[in-house]
Amino acid sequence: MARDVQITFDCADPAGLGAFWAEVLGYRLQDPPEGFESWEQALEAMGVPPENRNDASAVCDPEGSGPRLFFQRVPEGKQAKNRVHLDVRAAPGLEGDARMAALEAEAERLVSHGATRVRRHEPAPPLGAGHIVMADPEDNEFCLD
């Protein structure tokens, strides 16, 4: 039996990092609870103090097929290299120069949204198709693959 999965990010700014990853993946902010027009309205009604309203955020696949991403505020910053990272398939079906050009275009777009380019790995046939290592605004590594 397959299981649903949620990917959780520890971070300093859940709303900001959630917005970044929604942009990367074409996701959207999770809707507020039923009966509320906005998260601000829902959190106010729940009695959440203003200083705690960015303690968590979530984004989801608008088509409902991808995993939910959950962002939770933690007091400490990132300490070391990620042991797990996301590979964002930004050039499906492309090979060689066309693939790397598509990855470069996506890297440039994501840099404009706060990502940092880390390094490029050139194609190394037969197994290495080439990819670009990036970091999100809180320095979590991911690959454009």
Describe the protein in words.
This protein is α/β, with parallel strands linked by helices and 145 residues long. It contains 3 helices and 8 strands, in the order βαβαβββαβββ. It has helices spanning 14-25, 39-45, 96-111; strands at 6-11, 28-29, 56-60, 68-73, 86-88, 116-121, 131-135, 141-144. The strands form 2 sheets. The protein has a 4-stranded mixed sheet with strand order 1-4-3-2, with helices on one face. Strands 5-8-7-6 form a 4-stranded mixed sheet, with helices on one face. The chain is elongated, with a radius of gyration of 17 Å. The model has no long low-confidence stretch (mean pLDDT 96).
User: What share of the residues does DSSP label as strand, in percent?
Assistant: 25-35%
**Number of helical segments with 4 or more residues:** 3
Q: Total number of β-strand segments?
A: 8
Strand order, sheet with most strands: 1-4-3-2
What is the typical, i.e. mean, pLDDT? 96
Strand and helix order: EHEHEEEHEEE
Largest β-sheet summary: 4 strands, mixed
- Helix fraction, binned, reads 10-25%
Radius of gyration: 17 Å
Overall geometric form: elongated
Uncertain residue segments: none
Based on helices, strands and strand pairing, what is the structural class? alpha/beta
Distance between the termini: 28 Å
